[in-house]
From TrEMBL:
Record's keyword terms, sorted: Cytoplasm, Glycosyltransferase, Queuosine biosynthesis, S-adenosyl-L-methionine, Transferase
Annotated compartments: Cytoplasm
Physiological role: Transfers and isomerizes the ribose moiety from AdoMet to the 7-aminomethyl group of 7-deazaguanine (preQ1-tRNA) to give epoxyqueuosine (oQ-tRNA).
Subunit structure: Monomer.
Family: Belongs to the QueA family.
Listed GO MF terms: S-adenosylmethionine:tRNA ribosyltransferase-isomerase activity
Catalytic activity: 7-aminomethyl-7-carbaguanosine(34) in tRNA + S-adenosyl-L-methionine = epoxyqueuosine(34) in tRNA + adenine + L-methionine + 2 H(+)
UniProt organism field: Cytobacillus eiseniae
Protein name in the entry: S-adenosylmethionine:tRNA ribosyltransferase-isomerase
Length: 342
């Protein structure tokens, strides 16, 4: 299966650079995955498409202010560091710009010495392993010095850092936001609960691989990056009960989808408390075992995310819907509009 099958024309001006003032005021496209029929709504109306007994599954990961700007000790050369994955303790896998200036043994200083790091090794795709040194609590130092790691296609500065966090973000460790969840407010979630819809949380810490383009022609040759996930016993119990009672499991975002499908695949369609690393790659031909629907944003051409959506709703249905979204001037990507697939 060729990557070019998932290409479409996207005018650059439709890439949303800033979030809307009101989270729930985004457009919502509703796609019937069996017929390909499309409806247009506003996101706050998502509750009208849900029923008592359904379950919405949200990813409660919290984005770290993971972009740091420092100087190479001795030369003063400017170094940009992006935290990707905590290996153990204060040792992190990172991306560095410019990487060629940071060799094993290089020391980097941030914030006039509030935080320092020594390069202790290399990682895949030109990454570097850094051991950090500081006084106090690492995450508090990071909040003081770090910036939100916005995707590379967003050129505007983000005035309110919280707009790149979901209102239910709890578990620190993500390099990017689970952006389908950005449309929800606490008030909307309460309205959905009052209908009789269950709200369940999983955790998947999004890695930067989510932005990395597919660089091979054949999908089967693409390797996904592993990301850490965790599902509690309480969430697993709710999901099993919803399934047994005939309710629909609707994942919010591709991250929730990948987590649920990882667990259901390992447990013959059941859900159980678990944690670990997943590199599941979902593309057309995949048989879904966990979800009945999904809320997601509009994704990059030829990305693994549009492949996942196409696996659920059919490639032609999805590309037709995307062309409709372009014609209707929907906003794309992280700060863009949403799609509900049922």
């Amino acid at each position: 299966m060729k990557v070019d099958l998932f290409d479409f024309h996207l005018p650059e001006e439709l890439i949303a650079q800033t979030p809307l003032l009101e989270r729930t005021s985004s457009k919502l496209m509703v796609l019937d995955r069996k017929t390909g029929k499309v409806d247009h709504a506003i996101f706050r109306e998502v509750k009208d498409y849900l029923k008592a007994g359904d379950c919405l599954v949200l990813n409660d990961t919290r984005v770290l202010p993971a972009r740091l700007f420092g100087e190479k000790e001795g030369t003063g050369a400017k170094i940009e560091v992006l935290l990707l994955k905590q290996q153990e303790g204060d040792v992190w896998e990172t991306l560095i710009k410019p990487a060629k200036r940071v060799k094993v043994g290089t020391r980097i200083v941030f914030g006039d010495g509030l935080l320092t790091a020594v390069c202790t090794g290399t990682a895949d795709h030109g990454g570097r392993v850094l051991a950090f040194q500081y006084e106090g609590i690492f995450y508090e130092v990071l909040e003081q010095l770090g910036e939100m790691p916005l995707p590379p296609y967003i050129k505007e500065q983000l005035d309110d850092q919280d707009r790149y966090q979901t209102v239910f973000a709890r578990e620190r460790g993500s390099a990017a936001a689970p952006t389908a969840g950005l449309h929800f407010t606490e008030e909307l979630l309460e309205e959905i609960k009052r209908i009789g819809v269950h709200i369940a949380f999983i955790t998947l810490h999004v890695g930067l691989g989510t932005f990395r383009p597919v660089s091979v022609d054949d999908i089967n040759e693409h390797e996904m990056h592993s990301e850490f996930y965790q599902v509690t016993e309480g969430t697993a119990r709710v999901l099993n009960e919803v399934r047994e009672n005939g309710g629909r499991i609707i994942s919010v975002g591709t991250t929730s989808t990948r987590t649920l499908e990882t667990i259901a695949t390992a447990n013959n369609g059941r859900f159980k408390e678990s944690s670990g690393w997943t590199d599941i790659f979902i593309y057309p031909g995949y048989e879904f075992k966990a979800i009945d629907g999904m809320i997601t944003n509009f994704h990059l051409p030829k990305s693994t995310l549009i492949m996942l959506v196409s696996a659920l709703a059919g490639r032609e249905n999805v590309l037709n819907a995307y062309n409709e979204a372009v014609a209707q001037r929907y906003r794309f990507f992280s700060f863009g509009d949403a799609m509900l697939i049922l």
